Amino acid sequence: xxxxxxxxxAHRSEEIESYARAGVDEFFIGYVPKEWSDxxxxxxxxxxxxxxxxQYKSKEELENVVRLIHEKERKVFLTLNAxxxxxxxxxxxxxxxxxxxxxxxxGFIVSNLAIILELQQRGFEEEINVSIGAASNxxxxxxxxxxxxxxxxxxxxxxKLTMSEIQKISEFSGEKGYRLEAFGMSxxxxxxxxxxxxxxxxxxxxxxxxxxxxxxxxxxxxxxxxWKEEIFQEDLSPVYRKRIETEQWITAExxxxxxxxxxxxxxxxxxxxxxxxxxxxxxGLCTFKRFKEWGIEAVKLPLRGHNYKMNLEIVKxxxxxxxxxxxxxxxxxKLLDSPNFCSGQNCxxxxxxxx
Length: 355
Description:
By secondary structure, this protein is an alpha/beta fold. The chain has two domains: 2-212 and 270-336, Aldolase class I (TIM Barrel, Alpha-Beta Barrel); 220-260. The protein has helices at 13-22, 34-40, 59-71, 87-99, 113-121, 139-148, 163-176, 211-216, 227-232, 238-260, 268-271, 274-280, 288-293, 308-323, 329-336, and strands at 2-6, 26-31, 55-56, 75-80, 107-110, 127-130, 152-156, 179-183, 185-186, 282-283, 298-301. It has an eight-stranded parallel β-barrel with strand order 1-2-4-5-6-7-8-11, surrounded by five helices. A two-stranded antiparallel sheet has the order 9-10. The protein is globular, with a radius of gyration of 21 Å.
């Protein structure tokens, strides 16, 4: 199983080489040239990241990093994964893409259907990995992409899926010969990424990282405080009612789990590892064994813009577990050696966590 991770113009060449030696098979990068930033600043990125040093900014930079990655016999993908673009933005983006057309990217990571169509109609031959922003939550969506577009590479699964959902999608995709990618370590998301239209940058802080969300827990600021209760008094369709009941059950299960399994205090041996654990945020090590068994082709580590040294440790951990013949949940917990971190509340998938 491959590892794909993001890099930025803040990475030196020797750091990229270290990633490759540590086990990264593929890289993804963002490109925001002057002609885009002059028009939209950093507030509206063309690739879902609104932070300047997350991006490459010139054609020369792109050529150099792609050449370096290919010299290390690794692949590199360009992200074009904003959720939506207006007509003017699409026109400018395609002009930018024509300007870097000769750079030998191995593929693009795309969310928006219009961008996929534009690339294909303009004759771009690179494969397209379908981003989580395209909301491939079920087999019907995956079938849609493969039935209506050419050059589809991997479908990147949304990180809100449960393990049982991922297994069913994997079984279907395996029968069809479709390729899949799943998130594995580092940042999770409070919401469903594919339905989130807030910023992901420092100039305009994401809603999920704003003081309003952190300290007021997304308490409504405009509507009356009881607006949800009033809505729930309205008649609900059976399907929507079942969804609400399921969400309430999940919330109750989470709360019960936290009460029955409080996090233990950090031990002395864990303290030296705290910086790495803090950088992981969410951990999917225990899932990699099943991902391999289900035929998932790649694990994504969304580390772009994070601390290089900590990122390298996460890559090494990921590669070690992927390559291990029998990396069970118990094995992964022993590897991290952190009862506090592995208390069940930092897992990437499935809550409550029974294994």
